[in-house]
Amino acid sequence: MRVNAHRNNPDSWLGPNCTTQYFRDRWVYCWTTTFLEWPMANDLHEHLIELAYEAAVVPELWPNVLHQVGEIAKARGIVLLTAAPHDVRWVASPDMHDDTVAYVEGGWHERNGRLPRLLAANHAGFLRDIDVFATPEEVQQDYQIREFFRPRGLGWGAGTAIPVPSGDVLIYSVEREYQHGPIEREAIEQLDALRPHLARAALLSARLGLERAKAATESLAMLGLPAAVLRRGGRLMAANTLFDRLVPDVMQDRAERLALTTPSADALFAQAVAALEQGLISTEVRSVPIAAQDDRPPLIVHLIPIHGTARDLFDRASAIVIVTPVVPAEVPTAEVLQGLFDLTPAEARVARGIGEGRTVEAIAVAFGISRETVRNQLKAVLAKTGLGRQVELAGLLAGAKVPPGSSAD
């Protein structure tokens, strides 16, 4: 009876003897006599609890935690993933990693017959497939189970839903090989005993993700750099005070995503965010120039991808945005320009020449090429930097303001 009371009333997980909060100062959690009231209150139980809270602070430990918890149910492994089909993020135990990659890449998360039933049950515990489907036969007739899991030797599972403050719902999905039959009720009871701690660990990971984002931006502030962390979709997650000063004149924190106030620069920024979301940006940095205005020097906005499966799941952080001013009289080298704006070597040489104040004719003579070739390369540079005029490019690279009525050389 005591266990059922804990299941139905999440507040009672803390127990009557626990008056300290779980999330205090250095995220110290409270060990109480409550643990002894659960079934499976033994060394293994406490070991798994310790691992879960360690993973909350060090997300890279989650695969091992999921593996060891999965052994309770004699499962191949456990996948921890988001419930949203359009924004699936996950971390899996090692033996389920390849299966999960195939699952997501094949779009099988969009044909999930188990998840709607699990969410509809609204049960604060683990439920087996045979608990949410009418019969064991119906389980095996489910399209996803029949076409994806069975060919991989799987076919029996259990899951539980964990809401987190970001609005996500995290799913612990236990996957068992078909030959072993449905997961036993005794295993579910042991998983239910761990569920409050798995829920708290996931919640703590989500909270620490925001703290990590804030810490990253503040570290860059110490270097004098305006910086922000973006969530998936380009929405603002955290920013330092230097970045805040750029809002709303240079940046705008819109509902759909962070935006740049200069239309041409924002178009390039939107393309970079879209490429990031589609996985087209792996490790390289995308940079977007913003022309000088009034007393503000030209700026370059750098979009830097963030990677790490477990961190992606909890943090929802996809990129760091760093804004750097262009210092007058310091024209970047051709190699730097090439890296910043994805220029070809020839385009980078032309861009540097323009930044140094050379004319098209002078650049053509210096490199032994025709003026038409230089002009074509210059057009490509302007397109990649989002600028419309040669004088704007010169002003950006030399750190000078560009008068509105100026014309190209």
Automatic annotation (TrEMBL):
InterPro entries according to UniProt: Sig_transdc_resp-reg_C-effctor, Tscrpt_reg_LuxR_C, WH-like_DNA-bd_sf
GO terms of molecular function: DNA binding
Organism domain of life: Bacteria
Region forming the signal peptide: none
PROSITE patterns: HTH_LUXR_1, HTH_LUXR_2
One example of a Gene Ontology biological process annotation: regulation of DNA-templated transcription
Domain HTH luxR-type: 336-401
SMART domains per UniProt: HTH_LUXR
Record's protein name: Helix-turn-helix transcriptional regulator
